[in-house]
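Entry 12.
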Amino acid sequence: MKKRCPKDMVESKAEDTFPNKSGTLLRPSGEGYGRASEGQALSRTNWKTSPNMGETEAMGRRLARFLRPGDVVALTGDLGSGKTTFTKGIAAGLGVAGSAYVNSPSFVLIKEYRAPALSKFGSSGRRKSGANPDLSKLSSSGRRKDGASLYHFDLYRLDDLGEIEYIGLEDYLKSDGVLVIEWAEKLKDMLPDERLHICIDIVSKNRRRFNFTGHGKRYDTISRRYLKS
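Predicted 3D structure (tokens):
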């Protein structure tokens, strides 16, 4: 049985609906959701839908435009919902060379990728012109200087939180790279308070529903601007 995004990750608003094949507006199934009222206005939503894998990857590329060093994107959703495809799109949008080969780490919890696009940012997170492509120039006090720009966590095989502590999650959270964490729910209270949480529902064989929740002012702004783009 497929899981739906938990109620606390998807705002239960009157406008949080989507059309079925007949055009009738429906809410996602699960606690707190019911049939939408006829003619209901969709003035503000916290979701986007993807009809196929190609669009899922394109959505990731578009999100990358809103990200800067130090950002955390937490992904949740069933196996096969498209988390890795979405991450591949983020990598492409950041300028990772060979982003087509970004995949789920098989025997490790994390993979690191270089993304020259992030050299457009200063250590403050603001874009700058004439940036030096050496990513180590982005580092500020206490931040990593290894030059990797995308940290891709896949926690599917995580059985013990001690494993994530062993690889130094806190160091990555202070890094000058973007963190994308698949199966983020496994981190429980170790997740940073401020993050962009994206929960992916499987609507049908190919169709996916991406639910965005911004935790913290910056991530709420990212969510709202992305959803309007």
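Annotation: The CA atoms of residues 36 and 81 lie 25 Å apart. The helical segments are 53-64, 83-94, 161-166, 169-173, 217-228.
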